[in-house]
Amino acid sequence: MTALAIRHRTRYRYNQAVSFGPHRLMLRPRESRDLRLISFELSTSPEASVTWAQDVFGNAVATATFGPMADALVIESVVELELSAEAWPVFDIAAQAVSYPFQYADDQWTDLGALTVQQYTDPGARLANWARAIVRSPRTDTLAVLKDLSANVSASANYQSREDEGVQAPTQTLDGGWGSCRDFAVLFVEAARSLGFGARIVCGYLYDPGRQLQGTRGAGSTHAWAEVFVPGAGWITIDPTNRSLGGCNLIPVAVARDLRQAMPIAGGFIGASDAFQELAVEVQVAG
Q1: CATH class of the structural domain 95-262
Q2: Which residues on neighbouring strands pair with residue 5, listed in sequence order?
Q3: pLDDT band (50, 70, 90) for residue 162
């Protein structure tokens, strides 16, 4: 078991006072068998009225409503948690799903729904053909397929951190030969869906005290990865950026069909078009 403390601070600066619209905040980690949340504190400056709800995926979503105008906005969360995910997990895959391809049960297929459908256009089946190329034989070990697909993501594109918002389309990542962890996660999820898997995006934090993994700034940072549903094993955590399985160093905050549904902070301001000056994000993940 690993005890962690996470501090996530986002600061917006403007060259004049502006009004802030409601902000949607996804900063509270998802509690599970592998993650025990000890404490969570959320603060804003200027002070906001905060209400909580759960979205369709069961993520905790806060809505912050602001009053006075200001020339800066600070949103900060402080978390203490215990992470007990295994470093070398064993996946108890159901007999009918050990080999790929397999069929989900009717109820599973219905419930997975849009998580099995590609969200980006795939001209000429470029992505689908790229994904199918890693399947070596008509009956292949399912876990091996997922491992090979993950490895092929980082083999096909170089990791490159970027601060701008949004994500590249999967074919853009393949054509350009580079991407961030967000781009790698989207590429993997879309490729897995093209192979018939139910898959979803996960956003959260990466804990890397040795500073050896891709996507790390300091001992930890925000990160994006994937989960694939396999009968028997359930949701299998896969980080294509670091070619890893399991979540021993990953702290999930939100799962979603599309990355845009899992942004940590989303909101706007009312003011002059050139009022915005600077965005600074600080993340500390300490053991």
Answers
A1: alpha beta
A2: 80, 286
A3: confident
